[in-house]
Structures are given as structure tokens and as C-alpha cells.
Amino acid sequence: MARHDGREATELRNIQIEKDYLIHPEGSVLITVGQTKVICTATIEAKVPHFLRGQGKGWVTAEYSMLPRATNQRTQREASRGKIGGRTMEIQRLIGRALRAVIDLEKLGERTIWVDCDVIQADGGTRTASITGAFVALSLACAKLDLPVFPVTDYLAATSVGVLEEAGAVLDLDYSEDSKAEVDMNLVMTGAGQFVEIQGTGEEATFSRAQLNELLDLGEAGIQRLVAVQKEVLGDISSRIGEKAGTIQ
Amino acid sequence: MARHDGREATELRNIQIEKDYLIHPEGSVLITVGQTKVICTATIEAKVPHFLRGQGKGWVTAEYSMLPRATNQRTQREASRGKIGGRTMEIQRLIGRALRAVIDLEKLGERTIWVDCDVIQADGGTRTASITGAFVALSLACAKLDLPVFPVTDYLAATSVGVLEEAGAVLDLDYSEDSKAEVDMNLVMTGAGQFVEIQGTGEEATFSRAQLNELLDLGEAGIQRLVAVQKEVLGDISSRIGEKAGTIQ
Amino acid sequence: MARHDGREATELRNIQIEKDYLIHPEGSVLITVGQTKVICTATIEAKVPHFLRGQGKGWVTAEYSMLPRATNQRTQREASRGKIGGRTMEIQRLIGRALRAVIDLEKLGERTIWVDCDVIQADGGTRTASITGAFVALSLACAKLDLPVFPVTDYLAATSVGVLEEAGAVLDLDYSEDSKAEVDMNLVMTGAGQFVEIQGTGEEATFSRAQLNELLDLGEAGIQRLVAVQKEVLGDISSRIGEKAGTIQ
Amino acid sequence: MARHDGREATELRNIQIEKDYLIHPEGSVLITVGQTKVICTATIEAKVPHFLRGQGKGWVTAEYSMLPRATNQRTQREASRGKIGGRTMEIQRLIGRALRAVIDLEKLGERTIWVDCDVIQADGGTRTASITGAFVALSLACAKLDLPVFPVTDYLAATSVGVLEEAGAVLDLDYSEDSKAEVDMNLVMTGAGQFVEIQGTGEEATFSRAQLNELLDLGEAGIQRLVAVQKEVLGDISSRIGEKAGTIQ
Amino acid sequence: MARHDGREATELRNIQIEKDYLIHPEGSVLITVGQTKVICTATIEAKVPHFLRGQGKGWVTAEYSMLPRATNQRTQREASRGKIGGRTMEIQRLIGRALRAVIDLEKLGERTIWVDCDVIQADGGTRTASITGAFVALSLACAKLDLPVFPVTDYLAATSVGVLEEAGAVLDLDYSEDSKAEVDMNLVMTGAGQFVEIQGTGEEATFSRAQLNELLDLGEAGIQRLVAVQKEVLGDISSRIGEKAGTIQ
Amino acid sequence: MARHDGREATELRNIQIEKDYLIHPEGSVLITVGQTKVICTATIEAKVPHFLRGQGKGWVTAEYSMLPRATNQRTQREASRGKIGGRTMEIQRLIGRALRAVIDLEKLGERTIWVDCDVIQADGGTRTASITGAFVALSLACAKLDLPVFPVTDYLAATSVGVLEEAGAVLDLDYSEDSKAEVDMNLVMTGAGQFVEIQGTGEEATFSRAQLNELLDLGEAGIQRLVAVQKEVLGDISSRIGEKAGTIQ
Predict the structure, then answer these.
(1) Cys-Cys link to A105, which of A57, B130, C200, E165 (CB 3.0-4.6 A)?
(2) Of E89, E195, E220, which is closest to F90 when you measure between CB atoms?
(3) Comparing C-alpha atoms, which of D61, D50, D63, D60 is closest to residue D109?
(4) CB A134 within 8 A of CB A117
(5) Quick one: C206 exposed, middle or buried, by C-beta within 10 A (0-12, 13-18, 19+)?
(6) Which residues bind phosphate (chains A, B, C, D, E, F) (predicted)?
């Protein structure tokens, strides 16, 4: 049965990545996935957190936030509530961890890259759009550093897959799909087709091993298409990312 | 002597107001003033704060924030620090107070309008751009309400004026001018040419009554031009704003 | 190659679940998994959170904490720091979500069950031990309610799997294994062998689909053994949990 | 028409400044303006904030607070609420900024002067009384430092002006006047008659340029009388403040 | 051997209680004990905390604070630190508990009395001066209520006793004595000579039963003299406090 | 008249101290006093707080907490509320101060001992059980340090005494007794029979000097029995605690 917006089960939403979106950051993009829009920036700081000092290694960390009216109902600002919520913490830890899987921290040297993902408009998949966009912002920022070896070792992109009652397993859920999905899974993979993160949740439900395999197949295919978009946006910088990167082996 | 970007002392930067910038809010704009960009949204909530309940009156309140990399150096998020800084508080109180001067709260009825001003890119004048943009978002949101009398009573716009050592009194300072100005003044005025707020500060310096008068003249002229832009952007809604509004009397 | 404590790759650590460990809570256990010890309690409150009022449904929520010297180095209390860390938030959200997959919230009625998991001693796998123990505490608490239909619909247990350089894929990692694992995955499953949560992370590394499958096989087998321990501890209450529960189908 | 307490429109309330009010601080006063009473202290610390280290310059910063029963209704303590409100932040930033306009930070050397303004009893004009009193406390503290050149360069005082429906433009509003004023303006000026701060607000109303000029005239005259009181209180120290200080030029 | 200020071991410092010190509160005093000065106010609120609603009983609660420069070194404001320190909490809990021992909460009716003790200048004994002063403020506030039976049942006053190396057991320690005392004890007693609180601490030292008895003798005598001062200050209100109150039995 | 659990007025509850309860801390016990159970740990850190640096002295500090379901009703976590309550602060300050009375901080050297008391199950007397248990954990930790002179100078134990309407003065109150006691007193004493802390409170009531003496007699006897238990548990370490320690003189 068809999806509410007419997409095939295996179809991504429209993707656009506008690079150098802002004038100040070392790297920045506006990524649009359907109606979801996220500004991703990468800032290079010439020092590392306490626990890494003097080891010659760098660090990548991420922060994530939504504008109050990115959502259909206005959400109270975390600054007003005086603390960061659990969902935000989970997402920003995920983004940072995922990016660190494709950056050689020794080659980065004693620098921190701060990645900021600010959701301007939300329609499902904000954390995966953030990862896909942040990878590009991070690569743009690294290209501004005069390093002997480019520290980015492979592409990195993310998408969601899920199970809908009426449509079965589908790729890249928008908000209306996500809110009624029985199973919801976020996948982060490299250009070479390796897994970085799998986060699958039965939403007050459960799923079988067979369903899991079907979802993984959908996600792998979708991520390869996202990587193709990243390559095109990065242009010349692409050639500096590891030779075998972006090739399923 | 000329300003660093070649503008006349009496010249505003380029202004653009893109209306209905986001899909979710009742009113939204992206306002661009030179390199300063602010997303302003207006959200209508069908209740009022505690202190107004049962009085048949509405309320307008504002929140202001900057993305971490809106600025040249990354600024730590207020949510991460766990509290809102003094500068942010001052600005959001100013925006709310200013907007309340041109809205008839009785005609609004028992509703709150939440105005959110999120600075995407900062190059000086973020608080005045926020007010100028927020007025349009607020008017767009009010136009969605089915009210017998339109509650917006006049236009409202804001700009800055200041004294530079090399150029004397100038209009609409960008960041590089603002950071070395001897006197810095923000003006909020109505379409009819009345003052709503004057905030003038000798930045570790002082200013004379004569200088004050020169600055007020510059600001009045600039605000009339901002109001003209607002009128054009609002189109048909313009006719619903008070009859004499926007006319110097 | 052998694991540092002589276990087979497919072997769990010793498990003990001491039920009714405390006198005050409606349900409580001390679960011991190797050297990891967690006190899990379930508290029944006769009301539900705001967002559920008047719907005739209940809620299950969880909190997780570690004593400062549960760990090898003393950890500062979150109460002293004035906020709950990201790791704690992630874990307590996971525990609550997982438990809600095997409880019929309509049958629970307008009640909240607060599950508290307090780690007395940590040696890896504290979040999975918490889930396995919390399920028993929750079932004990439900048995104290005089409900027409028992609201727990199946068993729920969790364990970790991971990839070690020297030993390959292994089950139930202790702290020394976990801290050097290349891949780390937490699995939560039901007695019927359905997945509730998969959280797999390449720790600054990545993993292939083949490795994923090997890990899932190990985890499924381990969880069935944990469910067997739960059944024995619950004794008579076991018969009240859904008929087909605990049977791979 | 007369004011409710019989004052002329151009008349200040009774002013008293009791110097060396406390035994511990380097400078302290109790300032009384009508029924408004503020304890102002100045503390000298032999270091500067991070952003000024090693520049040979000093710093002046201010904090402001009200006792809970300074007001007619008890106000909850900000320490109990765990955060400082927006109004308090605005006021303490204003006090600090204003004082820095009349102190030569290079001549102060690498020292911080902490100014504390604690309102014991409030009846309108607490921020302007704080500035007028703080100036004296600051001067007393500077006189205790053995500096080659006295760092205070001119007098500094503040008052409010406003527009009342029944009495027109008036000077130095008390609480009952302030709470119904249509326009409310705070002025901070030097002894030489220069402006340091103008903060004028139409309280959900607006004001014309002509009204603004009338208010500025009233305020200038009032501040000169406040400076005369400061001179008398400071006695011998007066001669150390800049030669031309306190003289309209 | 003599005390540093020439007092006998059994001698209190000079005491003054200035009643109706502020215009707004229902009851207020400035209490001066030597160089220690505390403003104590009592505020009557026409409701009680949640846990007492509908029981026909009232409540008395206290808050305590020090101005930053009440002390020799400036103390950071608790509002700035965002939390109330342990010492402040201990003291305000003590003040509230002590006052509740001499007020009949049923006779007070469903009202809360908020007692605020703000230390303007500190020279030892701020918590005991707060209790002695707060009792008078509380009685003044109760006298403003039109109650059939006066709810204050006896006098209440407090002082400190301690052991000094050079002078042995002494009454009413000032700051210089307190900071080197081996034993430090605060006593709160009623007019009838009953104990309300004893808090005795060996400051990194210990004390014998014999020393304890000597200290209690000194304290009892001192408190009777404080009660005499309270009686005189309260004047006519004195006759409304319980008939046998203030008489050792 | 008999106590509800059949104890004599002079009788302690059953005491057990299980030493080396946890594997990670330098010293740890589980102390059980009737139904009250507290885990006490001592952690040695090789540095001291700021205010002690460079003086060659050590420090002992304590933290106290209760698991949410240690109590009959679930208590919200202080970490969730974002701040530590007044009662907790009072207790942890008391524990730290008491322990410092029997440790020679010079002999400890520049080290901090962190004592953590976590109440697993509460039935009255948690603060006194914490002190009695913490003393043993502290001694165990000190025994792991290779110090020329053992820094613990005497035993330290604590108990409560109180006045019950039906049973008069009694020793070691459980929760049901404590909650209706007219007078409640906590005593901390050394093995040599010296007082370290006396905290006696008339709970909205008062007590006479005669009652005070009766309570002190009961408490002294109880503490001697607690010290005897500590000696037995410490075994060989006992001989390293000051020669005359634990002997009434």
C-alpha cells in the first residue's frame, strides 16, 4: 500500500545540502530532507578537553537543539528550563560518537571540532539529517586546516527505517509516519557500508529477527544514496577522503 | 569621512524580510539586515499568564537567542550553561515591551503571543532587526485570528545610531562599527513617529545633549524607511493596521 | 583465545536475583551479575503523569543512579553537580521504554510504576543488569495489585555483546572487556524472542553486517538463559505472565 | 495639578547619604531618597576578571538585590528561586556600566571594585538611588587606595523622570507615581552635565520628541542637585575628583 | 583572664532592638548585638503550605541571608551561585523550628508567617541574634492580627556559649572569640527557662560532661537577660503573651 | 510502659557492621541498626581542597544520601530536583565535622578522605548509624595508607535519645518512635566518653534541664556499647587507634 506522500517504501525524501550557508563558521551547511531543515556548523578550536591534553590527539563533539517553533507545537527552550532534556542529550552524544568513527583523531592533532546542529524546521528524521549534514560541515572545516594528511577517513550518513502498519518496512520516515511506527530504527553507516550505530526500538512493541533484516536492507540502500549526494556537494574535497571510502567492498 | 563599507552616515544596510519562512508557526519571517539574519516567529496560545487570567486581556512575550556560530567566535549555548545571560534577558524583555506598545491587548482577547527571535547570523544590530522582524511575524499571526477589530494599532520598527570617532553620528551600525562606537543608542519607534524606547549608553564614555539630538534625527529618518519595507511585505494586511498608523503627524 | 576470566565466548557471568531485598517497596530485588550489583525497586503510585490523565492508562518510568564508589574511581554525585548527566539520562530512558514494551498499560489502569535502579557496585553491564532486575521488581509489584488481568505480558531481559580483538564476538562483557571492545551492543528481548531494543555502537570503529549477525546470535542465546533465571525467581507469579510468554515461537 | 505628596513637578524627594555605614567594607553608605533606602558598599579585590588579566587595567562590577520585605508584598528571594531575574540583571548591568564611565580603569590598576547595592526599603527609584549612592561608596573605597592619581574622573548621579496623566512631566517618581506613569525614563549623568545613560520607555504607550525634551530638562536639573549632595558628603575627597568635574561646561 | 573586649565571662554584648524598623512588613526590627546587626521581618500570608491545607493550622517558616559585605571578606551572593549553601539552610531551618516552639499553630489559623532575617553586619552570633530579633518581629506581626487568643505562648531568645583557651567558658562570643573557640554551643530557650534547642560542637575537639554543665549555666542566665529586653521592647503586647511566660518556674 | 518492639528504654536495636562490603573503595561497611541499613565508604584522594593546599594537612568530608525507596513513601532524588535539600546538607556537614574530631589531620598528610553514606533502608537513626559506620570505613581506609603514625585518635559513635509520651526517655529511637517523640537528641561521642556533638530539639515542644540530664545518661551508655562493636569489627586495626582511646577516664 502507498505511503501518505506517494513515496515508494524504498524512497528517500528530497535532499538538498547548501554548503557555506553561514559566513562565520569554518564549515557550515543547511541540509533539507523533505520538510526537515537543519543548520550544521563545524567550529575548530585550538585546544582539546582536559582528558586528552598532551596526547597529540584531537576531539569531535556535537551539540543539537531545535528552535522553539521548529515543531508544530511550540517547544519551551532548554535555556529557559535551565537544563538540557534527555532526548537532546541522547542525540548530541550520538552525533559526536558517529562523527568520531570516521575521523582520525591523531591526524587532527590537538584540536577540538565543535559541531552544532540546529533544527530550523522539523518533520521527522532530525537526528539523522543532522549527522548527514554535520559530516559535510566537518569535512569543509577540515579542508580549511593545513594538515599533511586529511583526517576524514570515510563518508558518514544516517537515515531512519521503520515498520508501518499500513505500509510495512519503509525508508526515511517523516513525522507523521514516525509518530505511528511500530518499530523505529536509526542507522549510521560509512561510505564503505560498515555500521557505525544501530538504534532500534520497538515503540511499546517488539520486532522479529526477520523484520530487523528487512529494515537493515532498506537502510543500507538509502545511506548509499545519501553518500552520493555528499560526494557531489563536497566536490574537490571528495578526493581527499580516504581512497576506498564511499565504496562498498 | 566615509564608513568602512562605503555607506553614508544616514544610510541603512540592505533590508530583506522573507515572510512565511517556516511552515509551522502562525507567523514567521527571516529578516536580513546587511549580514545580520534573524528568524522571527509568532505563536498564538489560547491562554494567558497567571497574573492576567480572567481579565479578558491578552499578552505578548518574547524570547531571543543566538545560534552558537551566529558569531565570529563560537558562543556557548545558554542551555549548556544552564541559565540565560543578562544580555539575553535585557533583549528579550525589550522586544516584548516594545511590541506591547502597538498591540491592543483587550482586542487580542485571552491569548498569549509568543515571539521567538533566533539569530542565525550576527553582524551588529541583532536586537533592532529582531524587533523590526518580530513586528511583521506578529502581524501575520494576528491576521490568522478571526478578530472583529485588528489588534495591531501601528507599525513598529527599530534601529541603532551611534557616534564613531572617524565618522561622527551614523545610522545602523554593523558589528565592526558597534564595537568601537563611543556612544550606542537603540531606538524603537512607531509608524506615526512616536518613541517607544530610547536606550542610549556612553560606552565607558559620555555624550552631550547636542549629540543626543543629532542621533535622534538620524534614527527617526531610518525608522521611517524600515516601516515602508514592513508595509510592502505585509501587503493586504497593511490596510488592517490602524488608519493613521505609519504616518508622521 | 580465552577470555581473561576463563569464560567461553558464549558464557554469561554468574547471576543471582535476591527478591524482596528491601522492606518498603512494593517490589524489590538485588541483582548480581558477576561483580555488578544493582538494587531495583518498583513503587506504585495511584496517579499518572499529566499527559495521560483521564485516559484510563498507566505509565512505567525509570530512574538510574550509581553510588559514588560503585566504580573504581569515585564519581561525583549528580545531586552535587546539580544535574543529571547524559549517560544517566540515556540509561533511564532505555530502562523505562524497555519495560513499557511488556506491560499492558490499559490493564495497569491509572497508576504509575516508578522503577529505581541503583548500582551498588559496577563491573560492566549495569544498564542490562538493571533491566533484567527491574523486570522482576516490576512483576513483584504488579502481583501486589489486585487486578483482574495481570498486566505483564511477557518476560524481558537484557545483556551485552561485543567484539574483542583477542577473543572475537563475546557475550556479557565485564568492565575490563567493555573498556577495550571495538563494538559494543546492548540487546533487550522478550521471553518470546522478540527484539525490544538494539543499541550497537562502533566505539570509534565500525562493524560489518556479518559481525552484527554473529552478535545477535550470541545475545539471543544469553537472554533466554536470563529469562529462565527470572522465571525461577518469580515462582508462582510466573504463571500469571502471558501464556505464551517466555517461549521462542 | 499637585503631586500626591505635595511636591512640585521639579522637586526631588529628601535625600540623605550616611557615609561609612558599615564597619567592614572599604566604602559604604546608606542612601535614603524619600522612603527608598539602599545600602551601597564598595569592595576592593586585588585581581581582575579573566578577560582583563595582564593589561594593567582594573574593573568595576555591580550587584543589586532587594530584601524580601523591601516591598509592599513579600518578594521571593532569588537565591531560593535558584536564579537571578531579568529585572535584577538589567539593573546590575546598568549600575556597573554607569560607574565605569567615571573611573579611569588604567589608573585603578589591576583591581576589581565590587559594588553591592542592597535595597532595604523600596518606594520607587531604587536603581537610580543605587547609582547615586554607589558613586559615593566607590569614591570612599578609592580614597583608601594609595594611588598616585585619583581614578574617579567626575561625579555620577541618577534620577528618574516621567509623565503622569494628572501632573504632566515630573521629576523623581515614587512608587505610586511610577506605577501609573505613561512614560518612565531613567537618566544617568556626570557632574559636568554629560549623559551616561538614557533609558526611556513608553509603558505600553509612546511619547513624542517634545515630551522627551521636557523630561531631559527636568532630569538635568535634578541630577545637578544630587551631585551637590554627593560633594558635601565626600568632603575632602571631593578635591581629588577631576578638577572640572561637577561643573556644567 | 580577661576577654579581648574587657567583658566578664558572664557578660552579654550591648543589645538594642529597634522595633518597626521598616514601613512595609507586618512586624520588623533591627537587632544589634555588639557589632552584629540583623533586620528581622515577619510577613503574614493568608494561606499555608500544601501539607497543612484544610487542617485549620498555621505555619511559621524562616529565611536567613547575609549581605555580601556583612563580613570582613566579601561573600559571594547565594543568588549568584544559584543555590543556597549548607550553613544558610541549617540556620534558617533552626530559626523556623525554634519559633514554632512558642507559637500555637492552631490559634494562628490557616496563615503562614514568613520570617526573614537579613544580616547587615556580622560579628559573631548572627543566628542567635536572628532568633532573638525574629521573636519580636513575629510578636509584632501577630499583634496586628485580630485573633481571639494571642498565639504566642512564651518568649524565645538565643545566645551562644563556648570555651576559650585563655578565658574558659564564656557567654555570647563575638567573631574573634568564636573563630578560636574549642567548643561552640548555641542555646535557644523560652522565657520559662525550658530548652528548645541545644547545638553543641567540639570544633575539631571534644568536651566533657562537666564543661557542658558549666556552659548551660552561663547560657541560661544570658537568655533571661535577653528576654527582659524583649519584654521592654514589646511594651503592651507583652501582656498578651502567655500568663506564666517569661518566668522561671 | 513497654516500647512498641518490646525493648527496654536503655536498649539499643541489633547492630551489625559488615566490613569490606564493596570491592572498589579503600574502606567500606554495611551497617545495620535494626531495620536501618547504610553503606558507608571511604575514598582516599591524594589532594586537599583549595583552602588547605600547601599546609601539609589533610581533610575529611562526607556526603549522605538516601535511595528513593529507602523510605516508606518514595522520595524524589535530589539529582532530579537539581539540588540538595536542607536536611541532607545538615546531615552531611554533621558527619564530616564529627569524623574530623577523631582524626589528626596533620598525621593524615595532604590527602582528602571522602566518606559516602548511602542509606539503603531507613527506619530512624540514619544519621547516627551513618556516623557509627563511617568511623569504621574511615579506619579501614587509613589502615591501607602506609603512615608512620595512625591518624585516627579515638573511636567515634553516635546514637539518638528522645522522650516519648508513653515511655519517657528512651535510647535509639526507630522511625515510629522518632516521628512522635516530644524531644529528639542526637549524640556523638568518642570512645573516651567525650562529647563531639549534642543536637537536641524540642519538636514544637520544649524540655527541662532535668530531662536533658536523663537523656545524656542514656546516650552515654549506648555509645559505649556501639564502640565495643566497632572494636570487635576492626580487629587488629584496633590496636593502632590511640592507646587510651575507647576508655572512659
Answers:
(1) A57
(2) E89
(3) D60
(4) yes
(5) buried
(6) 87, 125-127
What is the rounded CA–CA span in Å between residue C149 and residue C161? Answer: 35
Nearest to residue E135, comparing CAs of E34, E32, E41, E242?
A: E41
Residue F27 and residue F41 in contact, taking contact as beta carbons nearer than 8 Å: yes
- Residues ≥6 apart with Cβ < 8 Å to A97: A197, C201, C204
Q: How far is CA F81 from CA A82, C116, F75, F78, F231, in A?
A: 12, 15, 11, 5, 40
C72 to chain F, any CB pair closer than 8 A? The answer is yes
Sign of dihedral through CA atoms C91, C94, C96, C102?
Answer: negative
Hey, how many other C-beta atoms are within 10 angstroms of the C-beta on E219? 25
Q: Residue A225: phi, psi to the nearest 5?
A: -70, -35
Residue A82 Ramachandran class (φ > 0 left, ψ -120 to 50 alpha, else beta):
left
Contact E209 F195 (CB under 8 A): yes
Cα dist from A168 to A9, A183, A184, A218, F96, whole Å: 8, 10, 12, 12, 61
Q: State how far residue C190 is from chain A, nearest Cα, in angstroms.
A: 8
- Three-state secondary-structure class, residue E13: coil
Chain centroid to CA E151: 18
Measured between CB atoms, does C153 come within 8 Å of chain A?
Answer: no
Q: How far is B199 from chain D (nearest CA, A)?
A: 5
Q: Tell me, yes or no, if E144 comes closer than 8 A to chain D by beta carbon.
A: no
Q: Is C69 annotated as a binding residue?
A: no
Answer yes or no: are the C-beta atoms of E181 and E205 closer than 8 Å: no
For chain B, which domains are there?
A: 15-240 (3.30.230.70)
Which chain F residue lies closest to C67 (C-alpha atoms)?
A: F118
**Residues E31, E27: Cα–Cα separation, whole Å:** 13
**Phi, psi angles (nearest 5°) of residue F242:** -25, 135
Q: Provide, as residue numbers in chain D, all residues whose Cβ is less than 8 Å from the Cβ of E134.
A: none
Is E87 annotated for ligand binding? yes
Half-sphere exposure in the Cβ direction for E113 (13 Å, CA): 36
pLDDT tens track for B78-87: 888 888 888 9
d(C-alpha E197, C-alpha F90), whole Å? 15
Beta bridge partners of E121: E37
Show pLDDT as tens, one digit a residue, over chain D (249 residues).
679 999 999 999 999 999 999 999 999 999 999 999 999 999 999 999 999 999 999 999 999 999 999 999 999 998 888 888 889 999 999 999 999 999 999 999 999 999 999 999 999 999 999 999 999 999 999 999 989 999 999 999 999 999 998 889 999 999 999 999 999 999 999 999 999 999 999 877 899 999 999 999 999 999 999 999 999 999 999 989 975 666 555
Cα separation, C62 vs C92, in Å, equals 5
Rounded Cα gap, residues C138 and C108, in angstroms:
12
What is the number of residues in chain B? Answer: 249
Phi, psi of F8 (to 5 degrees): -70, 160
Residue C35: strand, helix, or coil:
coil
The shortest C-alpha distance from C10 to chain F (Å) reads 26
Please answer yes or no on whether B201 and D205 come within 8 Å at the CB atom.
no
Backbone angles phi, psi at B157, to 5 degrees: -145, 165
Rounded to a whole number of angstroms, the CA Rg of chain B reads: 18
Q: Which residues of D touch E77 (CB under 8 A)?
A: 63, 65, 79
Residue whose C-alpha cell reads 554495611 in the numeric block: F30
Give the residue on A whose Cα is nearest the Cα of C98.
Answer: A204
Residue numbers in the known binding site of F are 87, 125-127
Cα–Cα distance, D205 to A147 (Å, whole number): 59
Question: What is the DSSP code (8-state) at residue F35?
Answer: T
